[in-house]
């Protein structure tokens, strides 16, 4: 292990208080004022000093002390790389219509129709469109089976610099209209200080099954964690890493915190451990005899606080439901599951959505926003006060939207406070603009919480 104290490693950037850094080396400290740490530990900056190479920091156990800046790196958010040239699943004929006028080197990439799982590069050359199959195999892509790339962005970059066997180099991307796709680069997790070594992680037991794979209880640095394991490496990896990338930019006491990702053959997402599991199962298994009014208003407020934070960041969750709220040993509720989350107020191409939780404008026109999250929050409140019942009991799934549009609304659950039911009804306004913001809802809930015993 090389020590980073030579002159070439002068620390340049100044870190403000609250900045999180990750240790790249073990630091033993030589003085009682020092804060010893191990590689991978996360330290929060408490104070800078006159010496730009020394900071005062706090570790995860609340201990404070001095440490050299050259032993750590700043934790960085991982962002999606824009892929404006990626048009998703469109047919060859559509691609040829889109690529007009046919200037040499105008290109787009689409999902292959003939070879599911592969992609196609469509590029203009001498007024014609040439289509190249991009073979996707084991997280690698190639056109000529000689040069391989980790992702489409790298492939595009390569052929922008050099035709390398194609009819022309790629000159101009035809941008996709509307919501375009983004991709995650694995290296960015490394550069951002989010990578956990598999040997530092101990898996204890299976605790749940998710869409992408199994969830385990684990031990990392003497702390219980949840480990979400990606089962089918190939196509799901991007979606899985997108969830992780969204989480790198979020920090709030009511959001399930990302601790890191394990890369390699099996990608794993490591988050804080929430010992009491998800809210629906918690409500169903404890019921009215255990769960008090106070617990319900606490869960409602916790969830709303997290949603207000997302709203302030213009992040839309899109899958808010009691099954995606987790409870820890201290009975704090936290929002999880950012698998569908996206930035901005946008529309997007169709997908599978949880019909009973999704706002009508989102289901019909794919208009997702913080206001459609508010609709879902109303459903979540109903779940919470009905102790985990499935919403719209007795209405077949296919008929829900029709009933709702005609004005049908669920009744208040038995014993539900009037203010809470009023909030549900406001959240279920057909006009998104007439629904409250999470900020407004939070103020109401805090008020109600202060008078609930
Ligand atoms: P997916 O959204 O892919 O279906 P989830 O993230 O909802 O997967 O995880 C599935 C289940 O695993 C949850 O319902 C919960 O019971 C359990 N689980 C997930 N994350 C945690 C965690 N951080 N702590 C404790 N249990 C968890
Ligand atoms: Mg889930």
UniProtKB/TrEMBL annotation:
Protein name (record): Tyrosine-protein kinase
Class in the EC hierarchy, top level: transferase
Domain SH2: 85-174
MF (Gene Ontology): ATP binding; non-membrane spanning protein tyrosine kinase activity
EC id: 2.7.10.2
Statement: the UniProt record of this protein carries the keyword Nucleotide-binding: yes
Residue ranges constituting the SH3 domain according to the UniProt record: 16-77
Reactions accelerated catalytically: L-tyrosyl-[protein] + ATP = O-phospho-L-tyrosyl-[protein] + ADP + H(+)
Subcellular location: Cytoplasm
Record-level GO cellular component terms: cytoplasm
Family under the similarity heading: Belongs to the protein kinase superfamily. Tyr protein kinase family.
């Amino acid at each position: 292990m090389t020590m980073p104290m030579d002159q070439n490693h002068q620390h340049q950037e100044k870190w403000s208080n609250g900045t999180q850094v990750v240790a790249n080396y073990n630091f033993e400290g030589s003085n009682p004022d020092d804060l010893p740490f191990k590689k991978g530990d996360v330290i929060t900056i408490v104070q800078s000093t006159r010496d730009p190479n020394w900071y005062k920091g706090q570790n995860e156990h609340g201990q404070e002390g001095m440490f050299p800046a050259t032993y750590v790196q700043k934790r960085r958010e991982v962002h999606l790389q824009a892929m404006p040239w990626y048009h998703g699943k469109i047919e060859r004929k559509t691609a040829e219509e889109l690529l007009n006028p046919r200037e040499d080197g105008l290109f787009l990439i689409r999902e292959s129709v003939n070879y599911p799982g592969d992609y196609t590069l469509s590029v203009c050359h001498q007024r014609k469109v040439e289509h190249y199959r991009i073979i996707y195999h084991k997280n690698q892509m190639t056109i000529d089976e000689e040069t391989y790339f980790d992702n489409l962005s790298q492939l595009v970059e390569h052929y922008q610099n050099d035709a390398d066997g194609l009819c022309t180099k790629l000159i101009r991307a035809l941008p996709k209209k509307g919501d375009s796709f983004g991709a995650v680069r694995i290296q960015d997790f490394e550069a951002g200080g989010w990578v956990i070594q598999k040997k530092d992680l101990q898996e204890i037991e299976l605790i749940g099954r998710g869409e992408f794979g199994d969830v385990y209880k684990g031990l990392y640095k003497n702390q219980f964690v949840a480990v979400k394991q990606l089962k089918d490496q190939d196509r799901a990896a991007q979606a899985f890493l997108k969830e992780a990338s969204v989480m790198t930019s979020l920090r709030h006491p009511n959001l399930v915190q990302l601790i890191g990702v394990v890369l390699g053959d099996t990608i794993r997402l490591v988050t804080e451990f929430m010992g009491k599991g998800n809210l629906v199962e918690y409500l169903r298994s404890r019921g009215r005899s255990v769960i008090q009014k106070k617990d319900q208003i606490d869960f409602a407020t916790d969830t709303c606080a997290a949603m207000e934070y997302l709203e302030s960041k213009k992040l839309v969750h899109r899958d808010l439901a009691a099954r995606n709220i987790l409870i820890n040993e201290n009975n704090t509720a936290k929002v999880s599951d950012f698998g569908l989350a996206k930035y901005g107020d946008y529309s997007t191409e169709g997908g599978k959505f949880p019909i009973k939780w999704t706002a009508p404008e989102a289901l019909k026109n794919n208009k997702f926003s913080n206001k459609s999250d508010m609709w879902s929050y109303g459903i979540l409140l109903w779940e919470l006060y009905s102790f985990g019942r499935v919403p719209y009991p007795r209405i077949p799934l296919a008929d829900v939207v029709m009933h709702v549009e005609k004005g049908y609304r669920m009744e208040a659950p038995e014993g539900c406070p009037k203010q809470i039911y009023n909030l549900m009804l406001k959240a279920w306004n057909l006009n998104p603009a007439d629904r409250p913001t999470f900020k407004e809802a939070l103020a109401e809930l805090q008020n109600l919480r202060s008078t609930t015993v």
